[in-house]
Design a protein that fits this description.
The complex is a heterodimer of chains A (128) and B (130). Chain A is mostly helical and 128 residues long. In chain A, helix 4 runs antiparallel to helix 5. The termini of chain A are far apart. Chain A has 5 helices and no strands. Chain A has a single domain, classed as Fumarate reductase/succinate dehydrogenase, transmembrane subunit (3 helical TM bundles of succinate and fumarate reductases). Chain B has 130 residues and is mainly α. Chain B contains 5 helices and no strands. Chain B is extended, with a radius of gyration of 21 Å. The chains are: A mainly alpha (128), B mainly alpha (130). Chains A and B meet through helix 2, helix 3, helix 4 and helix 5 of A and helix 2, helix 3, helix 4 and helix 5 of B.
Chain lengths: 128, 130
């Protein structure tokens, strides 16, 4: 290949681009998307079976190890997917630099906070 | 010189001159559905936190979920979820290089709309007649 740019061979081989993190964000969005296909089907099926469940029935259901594990996996995959997606939306449409930074940091903290809330709640019920 | 040109320069996507097409409308709907689902995930957070807190908190959630506003939000959640799920699979096909020609992009688009409709109606049929 004829060298036409100022990029070094190492930079080209790493393929990370000017921002330094290349395709990681894109790939993580796709991996969580694929993981969410079966998880969403499981969640909908479970919710339909739980319609009208009282407190006792719901907590008994969630304390089954398989249900607790799948719920934690769903929470992590969906919130991570949502965090990556809303980051792109803010990057695309918010042009004020300060507001953009504020929203990007804010929503990252927000998704971590509700993720921890969900996982703690699931574990409290499952391990009670 | 640069000041004058900056003011007169049109903004790049220049959306208002384009006729809305099914592909472009579905593309922006995918984002709207994603944002709606992010907000809707708060319902799941509420449910899990309430169940971890105790029977009273759980019952408050169940009363809200059964109310008119709650049912409306849950209906919107299923609609957005099925659309984002089906259209997301269409996007994954594009990511691995399929369905790029115009005919198949449209075919898959109509398939997504039909699947969203059937799954949403089917789910709420199960909800109402379970």
């Amino acid at each position: 290949m004829k060298k036409q740019s100022f990029r070094s061979d190492l930079s080209r081989a790493k393929g990370l681009g000017s921002a330094g993190h290349g395709s990681e964000h894109w790939m993580a969005q796709r991996i969580t998307a694929v993981a969410l296909i079966p998880l969403v089907i499981w969640l909908i099926y479970s919710i339909l079976n739980l319609i009208g469940a009282d407190y006792e029935q719901f907590t008994t259901w969630l304390s089954q190890p398989l249900n607790a594990i799948l719920m934690i996996l769903f929470v992590i995959a969906s919130l991570y997917h949502a965090m990556l997606g809303s980051q792109v939306v803010v990057e695309d449409y918010i042009h004020n630099k300060k507001l953009k930074m504020f929203k990007l940091i804010g929503q990252k903290l927000f998704f971590f906070a509700i993720g921890i809330t969900c996982i703690f709640s699931i574990l409290k019920i499952a391990l009670a | 010189m640069s000041d004058i040109f900056k003011k007169q320069r049109p903004l790049s996507p220049h959306l208002q001159v384009y006729k809305p097409q099914m592909t472009s409308v579905m593309s922006i709907m995918h984002r709207f559905a994603g944002i709606a689902l992010s907000v809707g995930s708060l319902l799941l957070v509420w449910l899990l936190l309430a169940a971890a807190t105790g029977p009273e908190a759980y019952n408050i959630f169940m009363v809200f979920a059964g109310s008119l506003l709650g049912q409306f939000m849950l209906f919107g959640w299923t609609l957005a979820l099925y659309f984002h799920l089906c259209n997301g699979i269409r996007h994954l096909f594009w990511d691995v290089g399929y369905l790029f020609d115009l005919k198949n992009a449209y075919r898959a688009g109509y398939l997504v709309l039909a699947a969203t409709y059937i799954l949403t109606i089917g789910t709420w049929y199960c909800v109402l007649y379970h």
